[in-house]
Write a structure and sequence with these properties.
By secondary structure, the protein is α/β, with parallel strands linked by helices. It has helices at 21-32, 49-56, 71-81, 109-130, 159-180, 210-224, and strands at 12-16, 36-41, 61-65, 86-91, 134-143, 188-193, 229-234.
Length: 242
């Protein structure tokens, strides 16, 4: 007899910043696990690695346009997705300053402002705007960094980047405190540290390949799914000190 058991609908992740590097690898990993993925690329990116994935996973992968630093584009995306619910919202987008070797006193005001907007303010704007699109027991996460840990900073270096990720962590803690008082939601919240990965952002000296980081990171996200409260975790599921 044919199996008449209803199919369980595939879960869906809204992945912000998925055109290349860690975001693209995350999209590929979720697709392999049978998830549906809505991934964003920046306007004018042309044909990206995410578009290549779409050729392979046409029914599972949708591509949307978003530059997280442009509030009008975020508003447009919110309108397009307002009637949908996602199991996970994960914000991967971020960057480094032009000269990571500069001390905080050497960095220009423009570079400071630009990086804080990209790495700290804009990811939180995305979360604040799109949180209503996440199921009440879903997961909201951001790509932080082990370099965002204040306790673990014993070497300095990459000072502005560290500062932006520490700021992002603090904003997530404020968000978590507010959400804890909201009886209508019990979302899992997470700031992820992927390790030092060899990407355009991480550079060629990174200790990890993408394949050594992202499958573990995705598994940690899935393990966290359904467990309310905020955690700061690395790609192996270890707690990172704030």
């Amino acid at each position: 007899m044919p199996d008449t058991t209803p199919n369980t609908p595939a879960q869906t992740i809204l992945l912000i910043g998925a055109s290349r590097g860690l975001g693209h690898a995350m999209a590929a990993e979720f697709l392999k696990k049978g998830w549906n993925v809505v991934g964003t690329v920046r306007e004018g990116s042309g044909h990206t690695l995410l578009h290549d994935l779409q050729l392979e996973y046409q029914s599972q992968l949708e591509i949307e346009i978003l530059d997280i630093c442009k509030p009008d584009q975020l508003s447009t995306l919110h309108q397009r997705l307002s009637d949908r619910k996602f199991d996970i919202l994960f914000v991967n987008a971020g960057t480094a300053n032009p000269d990571p070797s500069q001390t905080i006193g050497e960095i220009s005001t423009k570079d400071f402002t630009d990086l804080m907007i990209t790495n700290a303010l804009s990811p939180m704007r995305v979360i604040e705007t799109l949180k209503a699109c996440v199921t009440p027991t879903g997961t909201i996460g951001v790509m932080s960094s082990g370099q965002g840990s204040i306790s673990n900073n014993e070497t300095g270096l990459r000072e502005l980047y560290r500062g932006t990720k520490a700021a992002l962590n603090m904003f997530m803690r404020s968000f978590a405190a507010r959400e804890a008082a909201n009886a209508d939601t019990s979302c899992a919240l997470v700031t992820m540290a992927p390790g030092w990965v060899r990407t355009d952002l991480g550079g060629p000296e990174g200790r990890l390949s993408i394949d050594e980081s992202i499958p573990g990171l995705v598994n940690v996200l899935l393990e966290k799914h359904g467990k309310p409260g905020l955690e700061y975790l690395d790609y192996q599921g270890r707690t990172v000190p704030w």
